[in-house]
Amino acid sequence: MKTFNLPDLGEGLPDAEIVEWHVKEGDFIKLDAPLVSMETAKAVVEVPSPYTGTVVKLFGGPGDVIATGSPLAGFELAEGAAQRAEAEDTGHHHGGGAAEHHAPVPVKAEADAAAKPAGAAQSADAGTVVGAMESSDRVHREAAATIGGVKAVPAVRALARKLGVDIARVRPSGADGVVTVADVKAAAADGSAAIGAAGAAPATPAAAATAAPAPAPAATADGTRTRTSVSAAGKPVRTSPPSEQPAMGQPEPLRGVRRNMARIMAEAHAQVVPTTLCDDADVHAWSGKPDVTARLIRAIVAACREVPALNAWFDGAAGTRTLHPHVDVGIAVDTPEGLFVPALRNADLLAPAQIREAVNRLRSQVEDRSIPPEELKGYTISLSNFGVFAGRYATPVVVPPCVAIIAAGKARHEMRPVVGGFEAHKVMPISLTFDHRACTGGEAARFLKALLDDLQRAD
Protein backbone atom coordinates (compact mmCIF):
# COMPACT_ATOMS: atom_id res chain seq x y z
CA MET A 1 0.00 0.00 0.00
CA LYS A 2 1.28 3.46 -0.95
CA THR A 3 0.45 6.03 1.75
CA PHE A 4 -0.30 9.66 0.86
CA ASN A 5 0.39 12.07 3.72
CA LEU A 6 -1.49 15.36 4.10
CA PRO A 7 0.60 18.10 2.44
CA ASP A 8 0.95 21.63 3.79
CA LEU A 9 -2.23 23.34 2.61
CA GLY A 10 -1.53 26.76 4.03
CA GLU A 11 2.08 27.81 4.57
CA GLY A 12 2.94 26.18 7.85
CA LEU A 13 -0.57 25.35 9.08
CA PRO A 14 -0.33 22.38 11.44
CA ASP A 15 -3.49 20.56 10.35
CA ALA A 16 -6.69 20.60 8.31
CA GLU A 17 -10.19 19.20 8.73
CA ILE A 18 -11.79 16.67 6.40
CA VAL A 19 -14.92 18.19 4.87
CA GLU A 20 -15.88 15.53 2.34
CA TRP A 21 -14.29 12.54 0.64
CA HIS A 22 -14.88 12.34 -3.10
CA VAL A 23 -14.05 8.62 -3.11
CA LYS A 24 -14.59 5.63 -0.87
CA GLU A 25 -12.41 2.65 -0.07
CA GLY A 26 -12.26 0.30 -3.05
CA ASP A 27 -12.78 3.06 -5.66
CA PHE A 28 -10.40 3.48 -8.58
CA ILE A 29 -9.06 7.00 -8.99
CA LYS A 30 -6.84 8.66 -11.57
CA LEU A 31 -3.93 11.03 -11.04
CA ASP A 32 -5.07 14.59 -10.18
CA ALA A 33 -8.74 13.61 -9.84
CA PRO A 34 -10.51 15.15 -6.81
CA LEU A 35 -9.68 13.09 -3.73
CA VAL A 36 -10.92 15.03 -0.70
CA SER A 37 -12.05 18.52 0.36
CA MET A 38 -10.11 19.83 3.37
CA GLU A 39 -10.86 22.96 5.40
CA THR A 40 -7.89 25.00 6.55
CA ALA A 41 -7.86 28.22 8.53
CA LYS A 42 -8.70 30.26 5.45
CA ALA A 43 -10.47 28.15 2.83
CA VAL A 44 -11.89 24.82 1.76
CA VAL A 45 -9.24 23.23 -0.45
CA GLU A 46 -9.81 20.42 -2.93
CA VAL A 47 -6.86 18.02 -2.68
CA PRO A 48 -6.15 16.04 -5.89
CA SER A 49 -5.07 12.44 -5.96
CA PRO A 50 -1.27 12.05 -6.22
CA TYR A 51 -1.59 8.57 -7.75
CA THR A 52 -3.55 6.42 -10.16
CA GLY A 53 -4.88 3.29 -8.55
CA THR A 54 -7.32 1.81 -6.06
CA VAL A 55 -8.11 3.58 -2.79
CA VAL A 56 -7.29 1.01 -0.11
CA LYS A 57 -7.71 3.06 3.08
CA LEU A 58 -9.05 6.45 4.16
CA PHE A 59 -7.43 7.73 7.36
CA GLY A 60 -10.38 9.62 8.81
CA GLY A 61 -13.92 10.75 8.11
CA PRO A 62 -15.72 14.08 7.70
CA GLY A 63 -15.04 16.30 10.69
CA ASP A 64 -11.76 14.62 11.62
CA VAL A 65 -8.66 16.82 11.94
CA ILE A 66 -5.55 15.47 10.20
CA ALA A 67 -2.11 16.79 11.15
CA THR A 68 0.09 18.01 8.31
CA GLY A 69 2.40 15.16 7.31
CA SER A 70 0.12 12.46 8.75
CA PRO A 71 -1.43 9.68 6.63
CA LEU A 72 -4.47 10.78 4.65
CA ALA A 73 -5.13 7.94 2.22
CA GLY A 74 -3.61 4.62 1.13
CA PHE A 75 -3.42 3.45 -2.50
CA GLU A 76 -2.73 0.28 -4.44
CA LEU A 77 -0.95 1.73 -7.47
CA ALA A 78 -2.02 0.71 -10.96
CA GLU A 79 0.83 -0.80 -12.93
CA GLY A 80 1.91 1.20 -15.96
CA ALA A 81 -0.32 4.16 -15.09
CA ALA A 82 0.86 7.74 -14.64
CA GLN A 83 2.00 8.45 -11.08
CA ARG A 84 3.36 11.53 -9.37
CA ALA A 85 7.09 11.39 -8.64
CA GLU A 86 8.08 11.14 -4.97
CA ALA A 87 9.52 14.66 -4.81
CA GLU A 88 6.98 16.25 -7.14
CA ASP A 89 4.74 18.88 -5.61
CA THR A 90 0.99 18.17 -5.46
CA GLY A 91 0.30 21.86 -5.84
CA HIS A 92 -0.50 22.35 -2.17
CA HIS A 93 2.90 22.67 -0.51
CA HIS A 94 4.54 26.05 -0.76
CA GLY A 95 6.87 28.46 0.91
CA GLY A 96 6.08 31.91 2.21
CA GLY A 97 6.68 35.10 0.34
CA ALA A 98 7.18 38.56 1.78
CA ALA A 99 4.56 41.08 0.73
CA GLU A 100 5.70 43.73 -1.70
CA HIS A 101 4.28 47.03 -2.87
CA HIS A 102 1.11 46.00 -4.68
CA ALA A 103 -0.98 47.85 -7.19
CA PRO A 104 -4.26 49.30 -5.95
CA VAL A 105 -6.93 46.67 -5.31
CA PRO A 106 -8.94 46.14 -8.51
CA VAL A 107 -12.67 46.54 -8.47
CA LYS A 108 -13.16 42.90 -9.39
CA ALA A 109 -10.64 40.20 -8.48
CA GLU A 110 -10.75 36.62 -9.63
CA ALA A 111 -10.49 34.15 -6.76
CA ASP A 112 -8.87 31.53 -8.95
CA ALA A 113 -5.99 33.47 -10.49
CA ALA A 114 -3.14 35.40 -8.93
CA ALA A 115 0.57 35.94 -9.54
CA LYS A 116 3.28 35.70 -6.92
CA PRO A 117 5.66 38.71 -6.95
CA ALA A 118 8.93 37.82 -8.63
CA GLY A 119 11.91 37.51 -6.34
CA ALA A 120 9.80 37.67 -3.19
CA ALA A 121 11.91 37.01 -0.10
CA GLN A 122 11.07 34.34 2.44
CA SER A 123 9.00 35.48 5.41
CA ALA A 124 8.78 33.72 8.75
CA ASP A 125 5.41 35.20 9.58
CA ALA A 126 2.35 35.58 7.39
CA GLY A 127 -0.19 36.48 10.07
CA THR A 128 -3.29 37.90 8.46
CA VAL A 129 -6.03 38.05 11.06
CA VAL A 130 -6.10 40.10 14.23
CA GLY A 131 -5.05 37.11 16.26
CA ALA A 132 -6.22 34.55 13.79
CA MET A 133 -5.01 33.64 10.37
CA GLU A 134 -2.08 32.65 8.23
CA SER A 135 -2.02 32.55 4.45
CA SER A 136 -0.01 31.37 1.49
CA ASP A 137 1.02 32.35 -2.01
CA ARG A 138 -0.57 29.26 -3.54
CA VAL A 139 -3.11 29.89 -6.26
CA HIS A 140 -6.26 28.08 -5.16
CA ARG A 141 -9.15 27.28 -7.48
CA GLU A 142 -12.43 25.81 -6.34
CA ALA A 143 -14.29 24.04 -9.11
CA ALA A 144 -17.88 22.90 -8.81
CA ALA A 145 -17.98 19.10 -8.66
CA THR A 146 -21.02 16.83 -8.89
CA ILE A 147 -21.21 14.56 -5.85
CA GLY A 148 -24.33 12.62 -4.96
CA GLY A 149 -26.19 14.36 -7.78
CA VAL A 150 -25.44 17.83 -6.36
CA LYS A 151 -23.13 20.27 -8.13
CA ALA A 152 -21.33 22.69 -5.76
CA VAL A 153 -17.86 23.91 -4.86
CA PRO A 154 -16.28 22.54 -1.64
CA ALA A 155 -16.77 25.81 0.25
CA VAL A 156 -20.53 25.70 -0.35
CA ARG A 157 -20.69 22.10 0.85
CA ALA A 158 -18.78 23.07 3.99
CA LEU A 159 -21.15 25.99 4.61
CA ALA A 160 -24.17 23.69 4.25
CA ARG A 161 -22.68 21.30 6.79
CA LYS A 162 -22.02 24.14 9.24
CA LEU A 163 -25.56 25.51 8.89
CA GLY A 164 -27.22 22.09 9.18
CA VAL A 165 -28.55 22.19 5.62
CA ASP A 166 -29.08 19.07 3.50
CA ILE A 167 -27.47 20.30 0.30
CA ALA A 168 -29.24 17.61 -1.73
CA ARG A 169 -32.56 19.34 -0.96
CA VAL A 170 -31.41 22.87 -1.81
CA ARG A 171 -32.83 24.39 -5.01
CA PRO A 172 -29.80 25.53 -7.12
CA SER A 173 -29.80 28.95 -8.76
CA GLY A 174 -26.30 28.99 -10.24
CA ALA A 175 -25.34 28.40 -13.84
CA ASP A 176 -25.59 24.75 -14.95
CA GLY A 177 -27.48 23.85 -11.77
CA VAL A 178 -24.71 24.81 -9.33
CA VAL A 179 -25.75 25.33 -5.69
CA THR A 180 -24.46 28.71 -4.51
CA VAL A 181 -23.69 30.27 -1.13
CA ALA A 182 -26.89 32.32 -1.40
CA ASP A 183 -28.92 29.15 -2.02
CA VAL A 184 -27.57 27.50 1.13
CA LYS A 185 -28.09 30.60 3.27
CA ALA A 186 -31.66 30.96 2.02
CA ALA A 187 -32.40 27.31 2.80
CA ALA A 188 -30.94 27.75 6.29
CA ALA A 189 -33.05 30.87 6.87
CA ASP A 190 -36.39 29.32 5.85
CA GLY A 191 -35.67 25.84 7.22
CA SER A 192 -36.70 24.18 3.96
CA ALA A 193 -33.73 21.81 3.81
CA ALA A 194 -32.78 21.07 7.39
CA ILE A 195 -30.76 17.88 7.83
CA GLY A 196 -33.02 15.05 9.02
CA ALA A 197 -36.24 17.02 8.54
CA ALA A 198 -37.32 15.07 5.47
CA GLY A 199 -37.15 11.74 7.28
CA ALA A 200 -39.24 12.79 10.20
CA ALA A 201 -42.65 11.05 10.10
CA PRO A 202 -45.71 12.39 11.92
CA ALA A 203 -46.75 10.44 14.95
CA THR A 204 -49.75 8.12 14.47
CA PRO A 205 -52.58 7.89 17.00
CA ALA A 206 -51.40 4.42 18.02
CA ALA A 207 -47.88 5.70 18.57
CA ALA A 208 -49.21 8.61 20.59
CA ALA A 209 -51.20 6.21 22.77
CA THR A 210 -48.11 4.16 23.57
CA ALA A 211 -45.78 7.12 23.93
CA ALA A 212 -43.98 7.88 27.16
CA PRO A 213 -45.89 9.96 29.73
CA ALA A 214 -45.64 13.73 29.53
CA PRO A 215 -42.46 15.13 31.06
CA ALA A 216 -42.49 16.72 34.46
CA PRO A 217 -42.95 20.48 34.75
CA ALA A 218 -39.18 20.83 35.05
CA ALA A 219 -38.79 19.85 31.40
CA THR A 220 -39.82 21.37 28.09
CA ALA A 221 -42.09 19.67 25.55
CA ASP A 222 -39.11 18.01 23.85
CA GLY A 223 -37.76 16.62 27.12
CA THR A 224 -35.02 19.20 27.59
CA ARG A 225 -34.63 20.17 31.22
CA THR A 226 -35.18 23.79 32.16
CA ARG A 227 -33.63 25.78 35.00
CA THR A 228 -36.06 26.77 37.75
CA SER A 229 -35.76 28.17 41.28
CA VAL A 230 -38.03 25.48 42.80
CA SER A 231 -38.21 21.71 42.53
CA ALA A 232 -41.11 19.68 41.12
CA ALA A 233 -42.51 19.55 44.70
CA GLY A 234 -42.46 23.35 44.92
CA LYS A 235 -39.53 23.52 47.33
CA PRO A 236 -36.41 25.69 46.83
CA VAL A 237 -33.73 24.01 44.77
CA ARG A 238 -30.51 23.23 46.61
CA THR A 239 -27.44 24.67 44.91
CA SER A 240 -24.02 23.07 44.56
CA PRO A 241 -20.56 24.28 43.52
CA PRO A 242 -20.01 24.57 39.75
CA SER A 243 -17.61 21.62 39.85
CA GLU A 244 -20.42 19.37 41.09
CA GLN A 245 -23.05 20.55 38.62
CA PRO A 246 -23.52 18.71 35.31
CA ALA A 247 -22.51 20.63 32.21
CA MET A 248 -25.51 22.21 30.48
CA GLY A 249 -23.77 22.71 27.15
CA GLN A 250 -22.02 20.38 24.74
CA PRO A 251 -18.23 20.89 24.33
CA GLU A 252 -17.22 21.24 20.72
CA PRO A 253 -13.73 21.28 19.21
CA LEU A 254 -12.42 24.45 17.59
CA ARG A 255 -12.08 23.97 13.86
CA GLY A 256 -10.80 25.84 10.84
CA VAL A 257 -10.48 29.58 11.37
CA ARG A 258 -11.26 29.48 15.10
CA ARG A 259 -8.68 26.78 15.83
CA ASN A 260 -5.97 28.70 14.03
CA MET A 261 -7.13 31.96 15.62
CA ALA A 262 -6.59 30.49 19.08
CA ARG A 263 -3.08 29.35 18.14
CA ILE A 264 -2.01 32.64 16.53
CA MET A 265 -3.52 34.68 19.35
CA ALA A 266 -1.51 32.72 21.91
CA GLU A 267 1.68 33.15 19.89
CA ALA A 268 1.10 36.90 19.54
CA HIS A 269 0.48 37.21 23.27
CA ALA A 270 3.75 35.41 23.97
CA GLN A 271 5.84 37.52 21.55
CA VAL A 272 4.55 41.10 21.58
CA VAL A 273 5.08 43.71 24.31
CA PRO A 274 1.77 45.58 23.86
CA THR A 275 0.99 49.08 25.11
CA THR A 276 -2.28 50.91 24.44
CA LEU A 277 -3.03 54.63 24.17
CA CYS A 278 -6.62 55.93 24.07
CA ASP A 279 -8.16 59.26 23.16
CA ASP A 280 -11.28 60.78 21.59
CA ALA A 281 -11.60 62.38 18.17
CA ASP A 282 -14.02 65.32 18.15
CA VAL A 283 -15.84 64.84 14.83
CA HIS A 284 -18.34 67.66 15.39
CA ALA A 285 -17.12 69.34 12.18
CA TRP A 286 -18.25 66.41 9.99
CA SER A 287 -21.27 67.13 7.79
CA GLY A 288 -23.74 64.92 5.99
CA LYS A 289 -23.26 61.16 6.22
CA PRO A 290 -19.52 60.55 5.88
CA ASP A 291 -18.04 57.12 5.22
CA VAL A 292 -16.55 56.42 8.65
CA THR A 293 -14.33 53.57 7.45
CA ALA A 294 -12.93 55.69 4.62
CA ARG A 295 -12.24 58.54 7.05
CA LEU A 296 -10.49 56.18 9.46
CA ILE A 297 -8.30 54.76 6.70
CA ARG A 298 -7.44 58.25 5.44
CA ALA A 299 -6.46 59.26 8.99
CA ILE A 300 -4.30 56.14 9.35
CA VAL A 301 -2.52 57.02 6.11
CA ALA A 302 -1.92 60.58 7.34
CA ALA A 303 -0.52 59.29 10.64
CA CYS A 304 1.73 56.78 8.85
CA ARG A 305 3.20 59.60 6.77
CA GLU A 306 3.79 61.65 9.92
CA VAL A 307 5.25 58.79 12.00
CA PRO A 308 6.45 55.91 9.76
CA ALA A 309 7.65 53.92 12.79
CA LEU A 310 4.19 52.42 13.27
CA ASN A 311 3.73 51.45 9.62
CA ALA A 312 6.37 48.79 9.98
CA TRP A 313 7.25 45.14 10.55
CA PHE A 314 9.45 43.96 13.39
CA ASP A 315 11.48 40.73 13.51
CA GLY A 316 12.10 40.03 17.18
CA ALA A 317 14.41 37.09 16.54
CA ALA A 318 16.68 39.03 14.19
CA GLY A 319 16.23 42.37 15.93
CA THR A 320 15.37 44.15 12.69
CA ARG A 321 12.69 46.66 11.73
CA THR A 322 11.28 47.30 8.24
CA LEU A 323 9.62 50.65 7.53
CA HIS A 324 7.17 50.60 4.61
CA PRO A 325 6.84 53.41 2.05
CA HIS A 326 3.29 52.25 1.21
CA VAL A 327 0.28 51.69 3.49
CA ASP A 328 -1.57 48.38 3.25
CA VAL A 329 -4.33 48.37 5.87
CA GLY A 330 -5.57 45.06 7.28
CA ILE A 331 -9.29 45.45 7.97
CA ALA A 332 -10.77 43.10 10.57
CA VAL A 333 -13.91 41.34 9.29
CA ASP A 334 -16.02 39.39 11.79
CA THR A 335 -17.72 36.21 10.53
CA PRO A 336 -19.47 33.26 12.20
CA GLU A 337 -16.43 31.10 11.37
CA GLY A 338 -13.99 33.53 13.03
CA LEU A 339 -12.03 36.68 12.35
CA PHE A 340 -10.48 37.48 8.96
CA VAL A 341 -8.26 40.43 8.06
CA PRO A 342 -8.05 41.08 4.31
CA ALA A 343 -5.52 43.65 3.17
CA LEU A 344 -6.59 46.92 1.57
CA ARG A 345 -3.62 47.51 -0.73
CA ASN A 346 -2.06 50.91 -1.31
CA ALA A 347 -4.55 52.78 0.83
CA ASP A 348 -2.31 55.83 0.49
CA LEU A 349 -3.16 56.02 -3.24
CA LEU A 350 -6.93 55.46 -3.09
CA ALA A 351 -9.68 58.06 -3.17
CA PRO A 352 -12.57 57.67 -0.68
CA ALA A 353 -14.86 56.14 -3.31
CA GLN A 354 -12.16 53.62 -4.25
CA ILE A 355 -11.64 52.74 -0.60
CA ARG A 356 -15.34 52.02 -0.12
CA GLU A 357 -15.49 49.96 -3.31
CA ALA A 358 -12.47 47.88 -2.29
CA VAL A 359 -13.71 47.38 1.29
CA ASN A 360 -17.10 46.16 0.04
CA ARG A 361 -15.44 43.72 -2.33
CA LEU A 362 -13.10 42.34 0.32
CA ARG A 363 -15.93 41.93 2.84
CA SER A 364 -18.10 40.12 0.28
CA GLN A 365 -15.29 37.75 -0.65
CA VAL A 366 -14.58 37.00 3.00
CA GLU A 367 -18.23 36.23 3.71
CA ASP A 368 -18.52 33.70 0.86
CA ARG A 369 -14.97 32.37 1.43
CA SER A 370 -13.85 33.22 -2.11
CA ILE A 371 -11.14 35.72 -1.20
CA PRO A 372 -7.79 35.00 -2.89
CA PRO A 373 -4.98 33.97 -0.51
CA GLU A 374 -2.76 36.91 -1.54
CA GLU A 375 -5.42 39.31 -0.22
CA LEU A 376 -5.06 37.82 3.28
CA LYS A 377 -1.43 38.64 3.90
CA GLY A 378 1.21 41.33 3.99
CA TYR A 379 -0.69 44.26 5.48
CA THR A 380 1.52 46.85 7.17
CA ILE A 381 -0.89 48.13 9.85
CA SER A 382 -4.39 47.08 10.85
CA LEU A 383 -7.78 48.53 11.77
CA SER A 384 -10.62 47.16 13.90
CA ASN A 385 -13.84 49.18 13.72
CA PHE A 386 -15.61 47.33 16.55
CA GLY A 387 -17.65 50.43 17.38
CA VAL A 388 -20.22 49.44 14.75
CA PHE A 389 -21.42 46.94 17.37
CA ALA A 390 -20.63 48.31 20.83
CA GLY A 391 -17.74 49.32 23.07
CA ARG A 392 -15.76 52.47 23.66
CA TYR A 393 -12.06 51.63 24.13
CA ALA A 394 -10.12 48.41 23.57
CA THR A 395 -6.73 46.74 23.77
CA PRO A 396 -6.65 45.03 20.35
CA VAL A 397 -3.99 42.38 19.67
CA VAL A 398 -0.95 43.19 17.57
CA VAL A 399 -0.05 40.20 15.39
CA PRO A 400 3.62 40.06 14.30
CA PRO A 401 5.27 41.16 12.14
CA CYS A 402 3.06 44.29 12.32
CA VAL A 403 3.74 46.67 15.17
CA ALA A 404 0.44 48.57 15.48
CA ILE A 405 -3.32 48.26 15.30
CA ILE A 406 -5.94 51.02 15.53
CA ALA A 407 -9.37 50.37 17.02
CA ALA A 408 -12.39 52.67 16.67
CA GLY A 409 -15.13 52.48 19.30
CA LYS A 410 -18.78 53.49 19.25
CA ALA A 411 -19.25 57.24 18.71
CA ARG A 412 -21.21 59.22 21.28
CA HIS A 413 -22.26 62.77 22.10
CA GLU A 414 -20.82 64.65 25.06
CA MET A 415 -20.76 68.24 26.28
CA ARG A 416 -17.68 70.20 25.25
CA PRO A 417 -16.74 73.71 26.47
CA VAL A 418 -16.80 76.39 23.78
CA VAL A 419 -16.57 80.15 23.83
CA GLY A 420 -19.67 81.36 25.65
CA GLY A 421 -20.80 78.05 27.09
CA PHE A 422 -21.08 74.35 26.19
CA GLU A 423 -22.08 72.40 23.09
CA ALA A 424 -22.94 68.77 22.48
CA HIS A 425 -20.25 67.36 20.19
CA LYS A 426 -19.99 63.94 18.59
CA VAL A 427 -16.79 62.16 19.60
CA MET A 428 -15.25 58.91 18.42
CA PRO A 429 -13.11 56.88 20.84
CA ILE A 430 -9.81 55.71 19.35
CA SER A 431 -7.44 53.09 20.77
CA LEU A 432 -3.92 52.46 19.52
CA THR A 433 -2.04 49.34 20.57
CA PHE A 434 1.63 49.13 19.57
CA ASP A 435 4.53 46.76 20.10
CA HIS A 436 6.80 48.59 22.55
CA ARG A 437 9.78 46.56 21.34
CA ALA A 438 9.64 48.38 18.00
CA CYS A 439 8.09 51.76 18.87
CA THR A 440 8.68 54.33 21.57
CA GLY A 441 5.90 55.87 23.57
CA GLY A 442 6.64 59.22 21.96
CA GLU A 443 6.29 57.79 18.47
CA ALA A 444 2.98 56.20 19.36
CA ALA A 445 1.66 59.40 20.95
CA ARG A 446 2.66 61.49 17.93
CA PHE A 447 1.06 58.92 15.63
CA LEU A 448 -2.18 59.06 17.62
CA LYS A 449 -2.18 62.87 17.54
CA ALA A 450 -1.70 62.92 13.77
CA LEU A 451 -4.53 60.44 13.36
CA LEU A 452 -6.86 62.49 15.58
CA ASP A 453 -5.95 65.73 13.79
CA ASP A 454 -6.96 64.24 10.44
CA LEU A 455 -10.19 62.72 11.81
CA GLN A 456 -11.21 66.06 13.27
CA ARG A 457 -10.98 67.89 9.94
CA ALA A 458 -14.27 69.01 8.43
CA ASP A 459 -13.55 67.63 4.97
From TrEMBL:
Residue ranges, compositional bias (Low complexity) = 214-223
Note whether Acyltransferase occurs among the keywords: yes
- Note down the stretches annotated as region Disordered: 79-102, 214-253
Q: Which PROSITE patterns match?
A: BIOTINYL_LIPOYL, LIPOYL, PSBD
Q: Which residues form the Peripheral subunit-binding (PSBD) domain?
A: 151-188
InterPro entries given in the database record: 2-oxoA_DH_lipoyl-BS, 2-oxoacid_DH_actylTfrase, 2-oxoacid_DH_E2_comp, Biotin_lipoyl, CAT-like_dom_sf, E3-bd_dom_sf, PSBD, Single_hybrid_motif
Q: What cofactor does this one take? A: (R)-lipoate
**Annotated coiled-coil segments of the chain:** none
Which keywords appear in this protein's UniProt record, sorted alphabetically? Acyltransferase, Lipoyl, Pyruvate, Transferase
**Residue ranges constituting the Lipoyl-binding domain according to the UniProt record:** 1-76
EC class: transferase
Instruction: Tell me yes or no: is Glycoprotein among this UniProt entry's keywords.
Output: no
Gene3D superfamilies named in the record: 2.40.50.100, Chloramphenicol acetyltransferase-like domain, E3-binding domain
- Supply the EC number(s): 2.3.1.-
Q: Name one GO molecular function term.
A: acetyltransferase activity
The UniProt entry's GO CC annotations, sorted and at most eight, read: cytoplasm
Q: Name one Pfam family in it.
A: E3_binding
Family from the record? Belongs to the 2-oxoacid dehydrogenase family.
Q: Which PANTHER family match?
A: DIHYDROLIPOAMIDE ACETYLTRANSFERASE COMPONENT OF PYRUVATE DEHYDROGENASE COMPLEX
Describe its partners and assembly state.
Forms a 24-polypeptide structural core with octahedral symmetry.
- Name of the protein in question: Dihydrolipoamide acetyltransferase component of pyruvate dehydrogenase complex
What taxonomic lineage is listed for the species of origin?
Bacteria, Pseudomonadati, Pseudomonadota, Gammaproteobacteria, Lysobacterales
